[in-house]
Amino acid sequence: MAPLGRSRPEEEHARARGSSGRSRQGPADRGTGQPRARDGAHGAELAGAWDGDLGPVAAHAWGGAGRASGRHVGVEQPVASGGHVGAEQPAADGGEKWWWLDEEENNRLQASLPSMFILLHTFVASTTPPKLAKLAEMWNPKPFFIVISICFFALSKCTSAASGGKPLVTAITKDANTLLYTAPLKDGRPLVVDLSGPAITLACSSKTGTVTTLSASATDGANPLFPVSFSATASCASKPPAGAVGVAGLAPSSQSSFPAQVARTQKVAKKVALCLPSDGKTTSGNSVGVAIFGGGPLFFVPSDRGDFTTMLAGTAPLRGFNGSPGYFFSATGIAVDQKKVPLSVSGRLVVGLSSTIPYTALRADVYAPFVKAFDQAAAGPNFSPFVSRVAAVAPFERCYNSTKLSVGLSRLGYPVPQIDLLLEGGQTFSVLGANSMVQVKANTACLGFVRMKAARGQAPAAVIGGFQLENHLLVLDEEKKQFGFTTFLGAIGLSCSSFNFTRAA
């Protein structure tokens, strides 16, 4: 299937208006589908809110986080065998006698053992634990354990069915109060998903960290298959974020992060497919996104649309930024309504990703020309019939009459200028009305970009917040050092809630 392309907002909005020029959808407060933000200064009230400085927010807002334990979890120890391989033959006098193989025969037998192991491993890896248990009841266990012993003798260790090499899947929900995204990884209780967090963090008092058990489900990319629990090291903090019991740090280049520990214990790739939901009103249905740790594929319903991890609208190489944990890449500029914004910044722009700040934060020297360009585009003939400024609602500086905007509402969101982040390599990350306009009141929607407090040199030019990442599938590949993304899923009638969490039969 070809990569998902971008749709022009003007064409979608024109189709939504029809010949009468009116939308078939209801008023903004009933039919927009736009997430409603709380009144007041969001950033200061959120647990783990953006403070203008770079780095993991939720995990380190607690204070006093201890170091992760250096203890190794789940490391298989080699089993050595000192025995000899032989064949038992009856003696001429009627008794029994062992006859040892000569050197040539012994070498031939040992040379065939890896092939035997591969066949056994393929069978075990493709068979679920319930089926293995049933087969064990049918088989005579003696020969089976002899083969297992041969595997240990030849290769020192065998991979168990529990590790399996399968990626893990978990649901992602959005907390309507904190606007943080969580996953039920700790005994079904939520951990905050933090793209900038270098470690798993729990509420505990040890200075050296702790060992805990986390759980998710193995997956084939289309459904959960069976539950998987594994041991993980975690650092300690005095108090978890509101509405959660800890933090699952997803930052790359850290052996203590959640993806690194999944990769180590499950024998899978250091790769994350993350799709953040837009609705934080419930914990089921359209409010549930998805994350797969360990590689693809990832299928949305209906599954015949194909593996979405291979249908990316764009990619960008991952870059470092001042040694800070997290995902960073380079951009050559920003465009509004397909016109590049003139910036005073020379060279490339460093851009970060964050799941713990709710809205995209732009450094002051980038924010001012960006807002000016947005005002100019909104006053143009394509948008002026729908865009009418109203009083600002903190933390936003540009707010509009959403009743008037709803006249041109389409599946791409409100009819406002498209915002494009121009990436290194010539590709574009596009922000349409569904990801740029935040419904803050019944009749008010605001441009969901905020001014960063940090000055140039202290922070990246932009940090893309959770709201702008919602309903895009993000593929974060640490091994390839690459950030990939799909187009806005709403443009093709899907969302991050289109994954089928019904367990496969």
Task: Characterise the protein shown here.
- The protein has 505 residues and is α+β, with helices and mostly antiparallel strands.
- It has helices at 9-17, 28-31, 42-45, 103-125, 129-138, 141-155, 258-266, 364-378, 402-405, 433-436, 466-469; strands spanning 86-90, 96-100, 168-174, 181-186, 189-194, 200-203, 210-219, 224-237, 246-249, 271-275, 288-293, 314-317, 328-336, 339-340, 349-353, 360-362, 389-390, 399-401, 419-423, 428-431, 437-441, 444-447, 449-451, 462-464, 473-477, 482-485.
- The strands form 4 sheets. Strands 13, 14, 15, 16, 19, 20, 23 and 24 form an 8-stranded mixed β-sheet that branches. Strands 3-4-5-9-6-8-7 form a 7-stranded mixed beta barrel. It has a 4-stranded antiparallel β-sheet with strand order 17-18-22-21.
- Strand 4 (181-186) and strand 5 (189-194) form a beta hairpin.
- Helix 4 (103-125) packs across helix 6 (141-155).
- The two termini are 28 Å apart.
Oligomeric state, counting identical vs distinct chains? single chain
- How many separate helices? 11
* Portion in strands: 25-35%
Q: What value does the Rg take, in angstroms? A: 27 Å
Question: Kindly state the mean pLDDT as a whole number?
Answer: 77
Proportion in helices:
10-25%
Sketch the major β-sheet: 8 strands, mixed
| Low-confidence residue ranges | 1-101, 113-130, 132-137, 141-163
Terminal CA distance reads 28 Å
Number of strands: 26
Q: Shape from CA axes?
A: globular
The SS-based structural class is alpha+beta
Short description, anyone?
The chain is 20% helix and 26% strand. A hairpin with a 4-residue loop joins strand 25 and strand 26. It has 11 helices and 26 strands.
